[in-house]
């Protein structure tokens, strides 16, 4: 075999083929496919189930990527293929629109608070009811668990609505240690030297209001991401005709989001599962009330009477005859 580039083992395999078949067929390229199909290939039944679930999730306004489909299959008791396998199936079926501009998840650096209720995020976005009536939707999210603490449909982004949604969350759970918002006029304008009723309300409860940097919405990234999720979910349903109807839709979404939707950032656990696992932050203690300011005082220099008494604010005080006809200094609070 020294005069050729064939290995000894390959030569003997070709000779065995030539004896078993004809010499010309022995040197023809052979199929590389597995005789009985690839052992890791997904069965047609599983593939059809994955395709059907993807369509159902899309029609319901839910996330319908490979990871979401895999989560739904697992919840149905079906051993799912890998997410990469599902991605190839959906691509082969023409169900995927390429998004080359989309950043990979590895390009995003995430910060997560260590405790449940350590920090909540509050934000609002515009929405339109039937007959083109404008309104807003507030969403209050726990940073650690991504749990939707409360949602509120309101006619405008007002401080009254912001306080209402926060109070609903506090009534259902506890006072958070921190509340992160943007710098909106209804939320927190401390960075520009202004106070708001929401900030004063939270401070009185022991919660510390904080904001992201102006022009840096990534700080509220968890809220921004869930805005996209609820908007897609709402668009898959008939448009609400009133705030009450929209609020009912939001309550339904919150139940789905918290208990039925596996979150990729949580290792495909639901927010409710992560919240239940804890640990939970100790509720903050409100600061003691500030002492009442001291009342201003006034002083006078009256002359002591011959009997040794002096009159102060209508009250006669006996000092003794030895002080008669002397001048004394009296100090008394200013009457309101």
Automatic annotation (TrEMBL):
InterPro entries according to UniProt: Integrase_cat-core (IPR001584), RNaseH-like_sf (IPR012337), RNaseH_sf (IPR036397)
Region named Disordered: 286-305
Entry's Gene Ontology BP terms: DNA integration
Integrase catalytic domain ranges (all copies): 100-279
An MF annotation (GO) of this entry: nucleic acid binding
Pfam families to which the protein is assigned, alphabetical: rve_3
PANTHER family assigned to the protein according to its UniProt record, in alphabetical order: INTEGRASE PROTEIN (PTHR35004:SF7), TRANSPOSASE RV3428C-RELATED (PTHR35004)
Protein name, entry field: Transposase InsO family protein
Biological source species: Microlunatus parietis
């Amino acid at each position: 075999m020294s005069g050729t580039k064939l290995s000894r083992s390959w030569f003997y395999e070709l000779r065995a083929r030539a004896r078993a078949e004809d010499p010309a067929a022995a040197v023809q390229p052979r199929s590389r496919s597995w005789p009985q199909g690839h052992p890791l290939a997904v069965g047609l039944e599983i593939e059809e189930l994955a395709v059907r679930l993807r369509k159902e999730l899309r029609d319901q306004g839910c996330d319908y990527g490979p990871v979401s489909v895999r989560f739904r299959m697992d919840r149905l008791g079906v051993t799912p293929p890998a997410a990469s396998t599902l991605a190839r199936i959906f691509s082969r079926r023409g169900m995927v629109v390429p998004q080359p501009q989309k950043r990979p998840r590895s390009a995003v650096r995430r910060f997560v608070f260590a405790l449940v209720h350590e920090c909540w995020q509050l934000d609002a976005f515009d929405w339109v009811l039937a007959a083109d009536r404008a309104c807003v939707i507030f969403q209050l999210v726990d940073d650690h668990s991504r749990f939707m603490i409360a949602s509120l449909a309101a006619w405008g982004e007002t401080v009254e609505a912001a306080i209402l949604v926060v109070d609903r969350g506090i009534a259902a759970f506890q006072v958070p240690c921190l509340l992160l918002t943007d710098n909106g006029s209804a939320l927190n304008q401390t960075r520009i030297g202004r106070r708001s009723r929401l900030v004063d309300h939270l401070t009185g409860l022991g919660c510390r209001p904080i904001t992201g940097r102006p022009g840096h919405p990534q700080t509220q990234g968890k809220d921004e991401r869930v805005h996209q999720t609820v908007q897609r979910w709402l668009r898959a349903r008939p448009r609400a005709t009133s705030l009450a109807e929209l609020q009912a839709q939001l309550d339904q979404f919150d139940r789905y989001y918290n208990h039925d939707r596996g979150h990729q950032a949580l290792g495909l656990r639901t927010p409710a599962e992560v919240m239940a696992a804890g640990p939970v932050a100790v509720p903050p203690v409100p600061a003691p009330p500030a002492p009442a300011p001291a009342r201003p005082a006034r002083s006078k220099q009256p002359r002591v009477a011959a009997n040794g008494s002096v009159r102060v604010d209508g009250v006669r005080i006996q000092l003794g005859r030895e002080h008669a006809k002397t001048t004394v200094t009296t100090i008394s609070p200013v009457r309101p």
